[in-house]
């Protein structure tokens, strides 16, 4: 006989109550799981990353954000001298290595500040990380941060000190350069007054006064020019400028002193060469180079000015070379000739009215136009200054696409090539017919004693100053 067990009867109300209880239990479990997950997430976010030196939880609220936007290098140390937080600039300066402060003097300052709570500041010279070059000048300031931490702020003063040194040097040089002609004018004016009864003496002193006044005017004008090229953006008023026009203006500017010394000024037509820039600044730069070449060349010599296009990775460039047959420049002087007020021969500079600012202006003009100026020189042989500027593509009539700028250039024979010497027969024979025809149309600005020169004036090897 089969045994059966009867279950108790459950009405609808009992079923609903059971379901409600089960739902409540499930909700409690789900909520508990959610709370645990949320708290676990918070703990995970609070954990330091592998790149952190220490937990950020010890920093006062908001400090981390402030340190991240500071321009100064920032380092936070705890009571054990361990780096809690360091900015990327601090690593770049080499202040932090292996989680520790690497500068002993700064570490000692931090310990003293932690002990007495006093703010300390000092200026230091730090060696560069590479171990080469000028030491870094820094200002270090240490202050307490809360009860256990110390904040170190370090500012790099190297560039500021360099600029200040340049400013002091510039002011001192300007004062000295102005003092010389002004003092001379004062003495000469007294001499004129004392020689009122001697017309010849008055005329002689007046002539010298005119020379000093001209020198003073030139100095003031070049200081103004230098200030302009340093502060203005020449590319705001940039335009295609014909190299022929720049050369012609420079030659006209120096024609009188060149004729007085019977110096031949030889140029080569370059109708298809254009540079991009400020016409006035480019004319002043090239004029300074030509003027220097004339002033430092002996009588009865030659000065050559020539332009050519060269291919460069970033775009075609134009080189304008000015070559003289002067006394040359020593290697030591070549390192400094582009400094303001520097003169290779101060006595000669005073005699020619030089201010020592001309080459500095050339350097700044070239740099502001995206170019450079270089110099090659050999003592007793002369110098070649080369102004290298970006070409104004598409300006004027372009040369033939297949034209080789170096075609017909004489091969290097191992000897020094005189950049202003007449072409040899071999060089002339090696020149393509198209170049020979162009040579017939060359333009020369010369004295009656001029000699013909090859179409291209070859600068000697460039040596960066």
**What is CATH's topology name of the largest domain?**
Heat Shock Protein 90
Largest sheet: 6 strands, mixed
The percent range for strand residues is 15-25%
Number of folding domains? 3
Please give the CATH class of the largest domain. Answer: Alpha Beta
Helix content: 40-55%
Mean pLDDT: 73
Give me the side-by-side strand order of the main sheet: 13-14-12-11-9-15
> Quick one: CATH superfamily of the largest domain?
Histidine kinase-like ATPase, C-terminal domain
What best-fitting shape do the alpha-carbon axes yield? elongated
N-to-C SSE series? HHEEHEEHEEEHHEHEEHEEHHHEEHHE
Pfam family, one: HisKA
Keywords: ATP-binding, Cell membrane, Kinase, Membrane, Nucleotide-binding, Phosphoprotein, Transferase, Transmembrane, Transmembrane helix, Two-component regulatory system
Protein name: Sensor-like histidine kinase SenX3
Membrane topology: Multi-pass membrane protein
Can you walk me through this structure?
With 465 residues, this protein is of the alpha+beta class. It folds into 3 domains: 56-156, PAS domain (Beta-Lactamase, 2-Layer Sandwich), CATH 3.30.450.20; 158-231, Signal transduction histidine kinase, dimerisation/phosphotransfer (DHp) domain (Helix Hairpins); 233-396 and 420-465, 2-Layer Sandwich (Heat Shock Protein 90), CATH 3.30.565. Helices cover 43% and strands 18% of the residues. The chain has 13 helices and 15 strands. It has helices at residues 12-46, 63-69, 88-92, 104-116, 158-194, 199-231, 243-260, 279-295, 331-334, 346-352, 358-368, 425-429, 433-439, and strands spanning 73-77, 83-86, 96-97, 100-101, 120-126, 136-145, 149-156, 239-242, 264-267, 274-277, 302-310, 317-324, 372-378, 382-390, 444-445. A 6-stranded mixed sheet has the order 13-14-12-11-9-15, with helices on one face. Strand 11 and strand 12 (317-324) form a beta hairpin. Helix 5 (158-194) runs antiparallel to helix 6 (199-231) and helix 7 (243-260) packs parallel to helix 8 (279-295). The N and C termini lie far apart (121 Å). Its EC number is 2.7.13.3. It is a multi-pass membrane protein. It catalyses: ATP + protein L-histidine = ADP + protein N-phospho-L-histidine. It is found in: Cell membrane.
